[in-house]
Amino acid sequence: MSLNIDYNNKTNHDYTNPTYGTGSISGGSVSKYNYRTTGMTFNNVINYQHTFNDVHDIRVMAGQEYYEYNTSNFGGSRSKVIMDGFYEPDAASSLGDFGGNSDQYKLLSFFGSAEYSYDQKYFLSASVRSDGSSRFHPDHRWGTFWSIGASWKIMQEEFMKDTSDWLSNLSLRASYGAQGNDQVGYYAYQALYSIRNNLGESGLHAYRLATPNLSWETNLNTNIGLDFGFWNNRLSGTIEYFERRSKDLLFSKDLVPSSGFSSMDENIGAIKNYGWEFQISGYPIMTKDWKWKLSFNATTYKNKITSLPAEEMWSGNKKWVKGGSLYDFYLVEWAGVNPENGNPMWYRYNTNGEKVTTEDYSSTTPDDKVKCGNSLPDWTGGLQSDLSFKDFTLSFLFSYSIGGKIYNGDKVSLMSQGPTGTSWSVDMLDRWTPENPYTDVPRLTTSPKSSWTNSSNRFLVDRSYLRLKNITFSYNLPKSLLNTLTLKDASIFFQAENMLTLAKQQGLDPEQTFGGSTYYRYPAMKTISFGINVKL
Predict the structure, then answer these.
(1) Residue 325 — left, alpha, or beta (φ > 0 → left; ψ -120 to 50 → alpha)?
(2) If I label 475, which of 67, 125, 236, 454 is the partner at 20 to 30 A Cα–Cα?
(3) pLDDT by residue (tens digit) across 407-422?
(4) What is the CA radius of gyration of the chain?
(5) What is the C-alpha separation between 363 and 346, in angstroms, rounded?
(6) Cα–Cα distance between 76 and 11 in angstroms, integer?
(7) Under a CB-based contact definition with an 8 Å cutoff, are residues 432 and 441 in contact?
(8) Signed CA dihedral, 128, 134, 136, 139: sign only
């Protein structure tokens, strides 16, 4: 039995000076907001284990879990502060706004598992879990999910004895199971209303439609892996195939505008995520004083839409179609700059299906958008090296990504036609002028139809990169000195992070989310540190 409580309380207090700065126009302002969350988890678990005849081992577990999450926030702002030096809301005379709300989420679960092994060679496992979520209607509140797994330590077999001098590990494992997802609004199944001020009187208007049939999203996971080791595990590795099929996806389905609602939550569509993982580690050098370990891993990850409620659906600059991917970019093609007048050009298709150029972006339609790539990398992974000589150790870690695309929203913002005072990319120095007609940067203009930052594959770049994530040099103090200082262990280290990044486009942090779009994302910081670790 266990009880865990997680309590968070945060207060934001903002003040603008009534005398100096931009706040002097409105007479200054004060705002104060409080945010409080409480999470409680209560568990009851019972375990049983027994071994029969030294070869049969059984482990059984059953339990119950209750989780409750509460949020509460309130606050407001006032303007026209009486004078500088007074920082509380009461020091301001004009009420700006005030609001607050509370939410609650509950999850009740019952679960159990059983494991069986025979002679430490054959392993079987099974589990079942039933969850009831407050986010769904009482008729569809409960979801039951299960899993099974098995593994075989092939090296323990009699017929493998002749390989023991060079093969130290060989095992096969597989698992299949279901997992539930209820990540949708707190009151997802209910019809909700918003309260509004209507000429000084309270009024209600419909906020969302009731969805009483909404229920759990189900994810079906398959894993098959092979673990191996050679020469007393001096060389070892893993090969694994994974697949995750998601059905009854919790999704906001678009509605026709005449309904009065933009969307409603439904269980629609299905997708499949799948790929391979490879990992290998080895010791090229192992002597009394020298030891060098190398580790390398690689993952390929794919996504496929297996079911949709419509022939096609749009999500920003991505089009979803059955058989395609959630991460496929569909964009208007960039055709360059017209050297005659400096206008930007894009490709579109005329009524005869012919590909032609246009200088009027507003003349393009969704039918002119073509598949321009996928935001998922072809391969991701890392390389780690640990080289030690006596008490000295030098380690480094590289991460990499090969293939895939990123829509560089940061570059778009640096080439924008926004208000004066904003920063521009150095590329704007190469813009079109009568003296510089052959360039990829259009002439300066305020015409909306000729905006050079309109969405197109012009800003789609390769997301491949190689980054030195970490390099560490350390020295362990000798035992003779530790005994004198009555210390158990001590080391001195120097560490640097993110010191080198090789990518196709300068200034872009290529280590982005799978979504593949970046906009004002703070880049990874270069950090240098040193210190001493001591164990008493």
Answers:
(1) beta
(2) 236
(3) 998 888 888 766 666 7
(4) 31
(5) 10
(6) 12
(7) yes
(8) positive
